[in-house]
Amino acid sequence: MSSDEKHGLSEQEVKTGNATAQVQGRVSATRAVFRQLSIQDRLLSPLIIIVMVVGVVVGEYHQNIQHAFETVRFNGVSVPIAIGLIVMMWPILTKVQYERLLQIFSSSRTWIHITISLGLNWIVGPLIMLALAWATLPDLPTYRTGVILVGLARCIAMVMMWNQIAKGDNNYCAILVVVNSILQIILYSPYALLFINVIGRQDSIHVEYGQVAISVLIYLGIPLAAGVVTRYGVQAATSEKFFRQRFLPVFSSLSLLGLLYTIFVMFAYQGHHIVQNLGPVFRVIVPLVLYFTIMWTSAFALIYYLTKKKNRGEEEGKFGYEMAVVQAFTAGSNNFELAIAVAIAVFGVDSDQALAATIGPLVEVPVLLVLTWVALFLKEKLEWVVSSRTAEVHEIPQA
């Protein structure tokens, strides 16, 4: 007779008790994650949902808003969207500890993660998007082309926002974004020709290196320069303590405002097109959701596996939760600004390709927002062993 039977508990009651304990454990872990977030982060999810809905409604019932956004354009993208993206990244890039980059680049840890990121971004990612686009959109070649363009445009902008929310390593995230951005200038054009003209054998597309370089300059170069000037300018004018404890907490809220503004503009910009093309839009959503989920999950699981396998001896601390977040969001995010700009420049603003490319961020925003919560939840549920020595070396001062 088992101990449970001795106490008068049936097998069913024991199973019910275990299930209840598991549910209570998950609820407790979720509450622990929620308590760790600032008020700003707690409000982010409902605010994004509200802004998305309002944007679509405004775009549908005030169709002239698209013409207003089109009044001023730069490199194929409306200036209102460009402003929002630059404002969103400015505070994040201000937080990066540029004075430590030489030290970080001198470690083998950095080069290991650069190698992993390049493999995920330039081999795995484009091939997965190509396979998903052909598998789900075999009869919609124009929309398929737009989806493939999204898959070829690697991370730049919002990846740093998601990384920040999920408590990833800002320094390493900045490094991977810069490295992938440089490669984007070199590889986007030949990749587009290979994946669309050669493999797809359909649309005749020509992408110039200058077009890609300008896009990277706008969405990374401008906020990067602004971040460097702001960081060292404020420290020189005041003090490092004032900068970290007084300036950054206030200045960081600008990222949230930039994110909400950008989301509103994007959804309002395409609100009418989305409503009028619901059939193809829902079809396009399928490969995008699958892509973001597969890439994020694969990268996160890979780093967790390496953390458990390598977290001993000399390998200790080279992976861990912060780097799992960095790799997952770097692999699962895309430079939709570039994809939209290229689609509009090559096929026209009213083309199916441009609409499909625009749906990219509309899907990426809610999916990756959910994945930030998944990451924070897994931080509590999974075992992440990091040596105190490594954690001390790579710790980022909190604002």
From TrEMBL:
Signal peptide, first to last residue: none
Membrane topology: Multi-pass membrane protein
Major localization class: membrane
Lineage: Eukaryota, Fungi, Dikarya, Basidiomycota, Agaricomycotina
GO terms for cellular component: plasma membrane
Subcellular location(s) per record: Cell membrane
A Pfam family the protein falls into: SBF
Family: Belongs to the arsenical resistance-3 (ACR3) (TC 2.A.59) family.
Keyword Mitochondrion: no
Matches recorded under InterPro entries: Arsenical-R_Acr3, BilAc:Na_symport/Acr3, Na+/solute_symporter_sf
Gene3D superfamilies the UniProt entry points to: 1.20.1530.20
GO MF annotation terms: antimonite transmembrane transporter activity; antiporter activity; arsenite transmembrane transporter activity
Entry keywords, A to Z: Arsenical resistance, Cell membrane, Membrane, Transmembrane, Transmembrane helix, Transport
Any single biological process term in GO: response to arsenic-containing substance
Transmembrane segments: 43-62, 74-93, 114-137, 143-162, 174-200, 212-234, 246-269, 281-307, 328-349, 355-378
Protein name as annotated: Arsenite transporter
NCBIfam families linked: acr3 (TIGR00832)
